[in-house]
Write a structure and sequence with these properties.
It is built from three helices and nine strands. The chain is α+β, with helices and mostly antiparallel strands and about 190 residues long. It is globular, with a radius of gyration of 16 Å.
């Protein structure tokens, strides 16, 4: 998230290790790069609510499992003179339905919103998403250098039969947000 062309250029040696890479640079902080080793049936970047605020939708095909859908989301944060209505609309629109309407899906990104807010609660409810933080803790990610008073602005949510195995916030890596690492399993195909 937040990748411009110089960031993408610097990432190219790492990105070369992935079978599928989709680059969407933006000069004003809301670009994204999607890289995966999973087979990709399709992927598409759309602007749900506002020009220059992309959302990525992809359909992935894990070996031995039915296809799953992925949403990469990063709505604009609340800023002076910029209310949260567009951000809130972007979050809820992304959660209403996935393009292929598959039962198994996951979403991740910097929501610029906490999981207990009215907007993220509505996102979970309308899309039947599960938040792995519930029952485990808040897992603050921002600001990276002050976790004790920090906020969980970066989200990972699952739906369908995806099963969470582990969930953690990684150490400070020089960004203003800490990365989230999750390990989950897709349902296997029945013979």
């Amino acid at each position: 998230m937040e990748t411009d062309q110089p960031w993408i250029d610097a990432l190219e040696p790492v990105l070369a290790q992935y079978g599928h890479v989709q680059r969407q640079p933006q000069p004003e902080a809301f670009g994204l790069v999607f890289a995966t080793r999973l087979p990709v049936l399709k992927s598409n970047v759309v602007e749900n609510t506002h020009r220059d605020t992309p959302t990525l939708y992809a359909t992935l095909q894990p070996d031995g499992s039915p296809p799953i859908e992925f949403i990469g989301l990063h709505p604009k944060p609340p800023l002076p003179g910029w209310d949260t209505e567009t951000r809130d609309e972007n979050i809820v629109n992304a959660g209403i339905q996935t393009p292929d309407r598959l039962p198994d899906a996951f979403v991740m990104g910097d929501f610029n919103d906490v999981p207990w807010s009215r907007t993220t609660t509505k996102f979970r409810a309308v899309g039947d998403w599960r938040d792995p933080r519930i029952g485990r803790g808040t897992y603050p990610t921002f600001p990276a250098d002050k976790l004790l008073p920090g906020w969980p602005l970066d989200q990972l949510m699952l739906k369908g039969e995806l099963d969470l195995r582990s969930f953690e916030v990684l150490p400070d890596n020089g960004s203003d947000h800490r990365a989230v690492l999750a390990n989950f399993c897709a349902p296997s195909r029945l013979p």
